[in-house]
Amino acid sequence: MADTLKNVIAQSLECPVCLNTFTDPKILSCSHTYCKACLDNLLECHGHDQMLRCPVCRAETQVPNQEVNKLPANLALKSLIEDMNNQYQFCSNCNSEDRPQAVVYCQDCGRYFCITCHNKHSQWPVFISHEILAMSEIVSGKVSVRRYRKCRKHPKEDEEWFCSDCRRFACFKCVVMEHTNEGHRAIEAAVYESSHVKSIEDLKSKADKKRSCFRKYVDFIDEQKDHVGNVQKQCTDDINKAFEESVRQLTKKKEILIGEVKCMTEGVEKELDEMKKSAQEHITHLTTIADVVTNKTKIPLDMDALAAHDTLYQDLQEALKQEDPDYKQPRKSSKKGKSVRFKRNVGVDEKALGKIVNAIAKNIALPTKDSMAAMVSTPDGRMAVGCWTGGVEIFSADGQHHQKVLKDINICGVGFLSDDRTVILDGSNRITLYTLEQTKLNVMFETLSHDEGGYSSLTVVGDDQIYVSYRIAEKIQVFSPAGGKAIREIPYDGYMPEQITNYNDYLITASGGTLRLIDKKGVVKYQLTTSEYYRTAAVSQDNTILIATVKHDVCLVSIDEYTDKLKHVQNLVIDYKFEKNERGWYTLQQYRSGEIAFCTPDRLYIFH
User: SMART domains, per this entry (predicted)?
Assistant: First the structure.
């Protein structure tokens, strides 16, 4: 009975995968136990998967970071194995109570023998061919004992049969009682084992062939890797040679581009120097004649002196008739020079280095995001950006933020009178005047409320009249800077302007993608329409019309110059990419110094 129990226990201590006594047993979530090394091998077969499938029940177990060592250990099984290893194995053949220790184990008999029984066993002719294992090799783990399976229901019976349908071993009694019904096929265990061993050997042979196949594949990969390595070396040499050649070509291209810039800018500088020289000569001429003619300390008395003095007097009068300096020509000349920029080739032809192009815009973030409501040039040549969130931001032509004024006023429109007073249109459609020092003036205007007029826009014309357009009311009111009621009204003719700009004796109205040039009675003289884009306009320093066409969805803006009849003159900016904003509201103005200011709700872009 003791030997039977030991055999049952010994079977329970064997790993189902390697069929050896458990080594560092680990428990899966399904409660089955395996050697840690066996689980490592199984996990490795799954590649980088962190799920381990139980070979017995197919249940999956999560293995954190593919570390089997982190799975819980079967401490009870581990302790039992240690206890079994520490116990002596006694002879199975001796019947005395004081049995001697076993020195060998017969694999064929399934019994342990002491030295005496072993000697007798080895002399029996029928047992001479049996496989004998020394206990020292069993204990050291060099060899494994082939266990005889004992039936759990009938411990005295060996499991000498195998049911291929139930996939389990059974003793003869269990076969008769449980495995003779239809659907059960019981065969001798030895036959099954022989067939199973043969299947394993066949699989091993196939595995060997498959390994050989993959070894050839690995050798092929190594061969291809060598080819790639050779290609890498050859390419590296070619690249180095090409690099050296490219450096020579780039150096030459660099010198050409620098020459182009020098030629373009020196030509502009020469033009400006000639204009400067002419102006300085005129200053010298005026100064010399004026000093002589207006010298009160020496009054001419004789006839020759009077004649000479009279001639100089006439010369001075002729010189004074010359028109005042025309800033238009130097502005145009400097515009050519200031627009010169180098644009590097990116992703096209790097070897070509780049080309000389028009200026890239200076990009300035507004102090408050999504705040711009209006923009206008200031009397001193800077740019004022009115913010509906409060205040007017002042920027110089080089993009420097100078100051913020009227911080507590929600701005919808801003303009300047000829005496530099500031005109503010707030969110409630109220007009307020401020001095240069931002002192509020006590002047009241009877404008339409926001409920009556809707969103509004403002512009100031040359005679200091203030124009306010209303979307809902569909009209423009004209106010005197003295305040009070509107002095007249201009009706809309089937359109709803979002912005208005003064242009000579006309107004430029913007409504979505449509620009209209209307007279002071509201009659449309010229019109530009597109259904896809947004447009805004400004008056240039040369008294032409600048129009920004905005592709809001793709964040592109083009700026073009037009005549007073809205005829296209030239492209100034083509598809400049600006930063995305949510509110599709844009304004355009030009600095007195020539720079073009394009403003989005979030940012100010200054083009030279």
Answer: RING (SM00184)
Question: What is the residue whose two structure tokens read 């009227």?
Answer: 406
E-only strand ranges, 324-465 = 341-344, 354-357, 362-365, 372-377, 383-387, 392-395, 401-405, 411-416, 422-426, 431-434, 456-460
Instruction: Give the CA angle between residues 569, 571, 575 to the nearest 5°.
Output: 150
- At residue 300 the predicted structure's pLDDT band, cuts being 50, 70 and 90, is low
The number of residues in the chain equals 608
* Residue 586 in domain: yes
Query: Is 383 within the bounds of a domain?
Result: yes
CB 376 within 8 A of CB 404: no
Strand ranges across the sheet with 545-551: 534-539, 545-551, 556-562, 568-577
Query: 253 and 285: one domain?
Result: yes
Percentage with pLDDT > 90 across the chain: 31
Per-residue pLDDT band at 132 (split at 50, 70, 90): confident
Judged against a pLDDT cut of 50, whether residue 346 lies above it is answered with: no
pTM above 0.70, yes or no: no
Of 492, 424, 503, which is closest to residue 457 (Cα–Cα)? Answer: 424
**Contact call for residues 332 and 231 (beta carbons, < 8 A):** no
DSSP state of 93: S
* DSSP three-state, residue 449: coil
- Residue 325 to residue 321: CA distance in whole angstroms: 12
pLDDT band at 1 (very low <50, low <70, confident <90, very high): very low
Domain count along the chain: 3
- Domain housing 54: 1-87
Mark which of 36, 59, 87 sits at the end of a domain.
87
Asked if residue 456 is part of any domain, the answer here is yes
Q: 377 with 229, same domain?
A: no
Mean pLDDT of the chain: 82
Last residue of a domain, one of 341, 357, 373: 357
Q: Is residue 134 part of a domain?
A: no
153: left (phi over 0), alpha (psi -120 to 50) or beta: alpha
Sign of the alpha-carbon torsion through 442, 446, 450, 453: negative
Q: Report yes or no: 159 and 169 within 8 Å, Cβ to Cβ.
A: yes
Tell me the β-bridge partners of 508: 501, 517
